[in-house]
Amino acid sequence: MSPIISLKNVYKEYINGQIKQPVLHDISLAINAGEFVAIVGQSGNGKSTLLNLLTGIDRPSQGQMDVCGSALHKLNEEQLSVWRGANVGIVFQFFQLLPSLTLLQNIILPMDFIANKPKCERLERAKYLLDLVGLSEHAQHLPSQISGGQQQRAAIARALANDPQLIVADEPTGNLDEETADAVFALFAQLNGQGKTLVMVTHNEALAESATRRISIHSGRIHEDHPTISRTRQPLE
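^ that's the sequence the OP posted. Answer follows.
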């Protein structure tokens, strides 16, 4: 079976006037379906840039990137947008829920973009996902009417809307208190137990060691890459 993520000799640099700013150097990486990978490292070492490349939000300067069966380095912007909507669920540190939409509407929106289900099925799936993350009673609330932890759980439900192969999270617990962060991480662990592939950037070493694999990025290079202590995966009910 081919890896769900395969990066070969990937470089990324940004151009600021006449100055080239290298961020990632010769990244080669393979991640198999069903892994839960934590990416750690100090700020400014390229972790978020790597996630942006994996999700097609940004493009590599050099190298090959095959993710969820597509060669991202060969796709144009329109193709990347369609690919991302169908294959990747993204969870951000600051939630990024649309403030004028209810939680239910926020979750339906990605399904409307792909439009691969009848509207009645989109509504039922959105309700199911809100129930999955424990927010069914808040379906008609705006994001501003619920707590930060609840907003992050709603953001995870939105990331699952199109049943993506890959879930990518950028510091998903960085804006939460410890207890709420643990609850959000437990939800990720449950999703992984169901078979979802997760790649998460985190500064929290304890959470990183609770994933199945830990990758350390230093100065834009992979510094360490090893499995963590195995844990029991609990399937979703």
